[in-house]
Design goal:
single chain; about 220 residues; alpha/beta; Rossmann fold; 8 helices
């Protein structure tokens, strides 16, 4: 195991948890650690799916949650989630398990786009607590049903960047206990800061597009 990478990862987890504990669901996106980890990016206009005015309004409301100031249009960071939510929906999953769910916003966006099914997020206990509060508040704001449920058999696995960043021991646990038990999946792979780039489960590997960082891959099975 790369001990230096594990130390980096443990420190990242610690900072993420502390940032959420210092914040509320109404202001967490203003915290500098959250800003860094969620990634404030520029998303190409040509990769913004066309949305109805109603759906766009729902997603603006979801995007607004966590900002202290008003949001009048979808942010670039949120457009990236919309783009990949559309790609997941093309596969028509009946149930989804997500590895590393952030605040839970991807689940909310999928629901706003019209996806319905069972959803479960694997995450740190402290982060799960924040996700429950966040999703409850988004439900109140948008009327979308966003409660997590126990997983049904054969869920569709998704992970956006988290899985590729794990240390080898943690990555192996998730691959053995989640990935290999899901007949289909969609993962954005982001091995950086010393993480192993080895992908040791059967999948189709393509360069992520639009490519945002060296080593990013899109994995599907």
């Amino acid at each position: 195991m790369n001990q230096t990478h594990k130390q980096w990862l443990d420190n990242e987890y610690s900072q993420w948890v502390h940032a959420l504990q210092e914040s509320t669901v109404y202001n967490f996106k203003e915290h500098p650690i959250v800003k860094r980890m969620l990634g404030e990016i520029e998303w190409p206009v040509e990769f913004r799916p066309i949305l109805s005015s109603y759906v766009e309004g729902q997603i603006i409301a979801i995007d607004y949650m966590g900002h202290t100031g008003p949001i009048y249009e979808i942010t670039d960071t949120c457009w990236r989630m919309v783009y990949y939510a559309k790609k997941v929906m093309e596969r028509q999953p009946m149930s989804i398990v997500e590895i590393g769910g952030g605040a839970g916003q991807f689940f909310a966006i999928l629901s706003a786009l019209g996806w319905h099914g069972d959803y479960w997020i694997h995450d740190l206990p402290e982060v799960k607590q924040f996700q429950y509060r966040y999703l409850a508040e988004v439900t109140y704001l948008t009327k979308l049903p966003l409660s997590q449920t126990n997983m049904t058999a054969s869920p569709f696995c998704i992970s956006f960047y988290a899985l590729g960043e794990f240390d080898d021991e943690l990555k192996k646990w998730y691959i053995d206990n989640v990935v290999k038990k899901c007949p289909h999946g969609f993962v954005l792979w982001n091995p950086h800061s010393g993480a192993s780039a080895d992908i040791n489960f059967p999948c189709t590997i393509t360069d992520e597009y639009p490519l945002l960082a060296d080593g990013n891959k899109q994995l599907e099975w």
